[in-house]
Amino acid sequence: MNEYTRREEVRATFIASAILVLCIAVAVLRLVTVEGRLVPDPGARRQAEEAEARVAPARACALAGEKLIVEIDLFKAAAKSARMPDPGAAPPAPPPPATSTKGRPPRNAPPPPKPKEPDKQGAWASAQPLYKQVKTLAGCREATEALLGARVNAIPAWEAIAKAAAITPPGAAEAEQFEAAKQLLSLVADIQADKVAQATKDAEAAFKANAERDRDRALTAMVREPLPQGVFSRRVAVSVGVGLTVCALFISYLGVRAASMRRLATLLPLRDAVRSGRPGMQAAEILKTAAAHNSGEPGLVIGAAIGGFSAALLAPRDADLFVAGVMAGLLIGLGAQWAFRLALGAGRWRARTTELAEVEKPAIPIVLVLSGVKPGLELEFIQFLRSLPPADAAAAVEKLASQAEERILAAADAGAALTHGKPPPG
């Protein structure tokens, strides 16, 4: 900045800087502190659904545990009717041979009766209901012990059930079916099925309690919705938006400085023209320089600040809109600035000319020149002056000042004549 910088330009730069700092500070604070909307917790809802899904298998396990006790008793009764060997009983002893009264076997004694053969037909059919419950319970141990822990008194029964479930279903041969049924009976006949049934029942109750608890929690649990990820990451978007506004302010400052240096380079050499007897050239250049609009781009700065501020307030969750708001504000602000300059026209020309004259102090009083320009015709005068070559423009300004001076002197003489009671000179 120097003495050729207009007060209007300094004032506009200061106002634009203040607006920029305030708007962008609020916008950045808003963008940094914004949080997503409160929405129902999908994790809690998913957990409740999973807990609810575990209740049905737990119920099936509890039912299988209850049925296991009944099916074991039924199968043991069926096995006894079919003369299936009891796995826990000792093999039957052969009947003693018949003897005579003298201790010798009698002649022509009948042979001892043969034991009845087991009824192999239908052995596996009677075992299938028990086998079904065993297969169901074999898949229940992991979930039950994961929830309740391993119960020592139920471990042998669980292991026997696992071995029984591993039996391969027999084919159509009766002997094969009988052996499979006998193997199943040997594994589960004496297990503590009530321990397994109680464990599955307790697990079902625990699953139901967990499902109810998770269901209640899912109705009230809320989480913050994640902020959307746009083209830029949030940090990059904020940095880009702020960087654009700073660049706009820097461009505006450079514009003001360039204009003041241009005025300096234009008017400073003309001081020598006054000393060389060409005062009109300096006055004419002052008039033309003052007609130029203000330099700097305060509209660019203010538009970028307001655009970013508006985007941050209206849509703080989308950081990309902050960048878009700044860019749109740059264009809108620049357009508004030029529209203001066109609407202002030459309305500030007299004040700007007087301000430059205070700096240059031309030999021809600028007040005389300005008094010769009729109000409302400033724009036409400026266009006329710009259309003339420098020498003609200087002569026109000198003539305008001379005419204004003559009018002033004539008015002074007329005033003096009236004071002394004489008529004014014709």
From TrEMBL:
Domain of life: Bacteria
Biased composition regions of type Pro residues, renumbered to the chain: 88-98
Organism: Sorangium cellulosum (strain So ce56)
Protein name per the record: Alanine/arginine/proline-rich membrane protein
Keyword annotations: Membrane, Transmembrane, Transmembrane helix
Record's keyword annotation contains Lipoprotein: no
Segments for region (Disordered): 83-125
TM spans (from-to): 12-32, 236-256, 298-315, 321-340
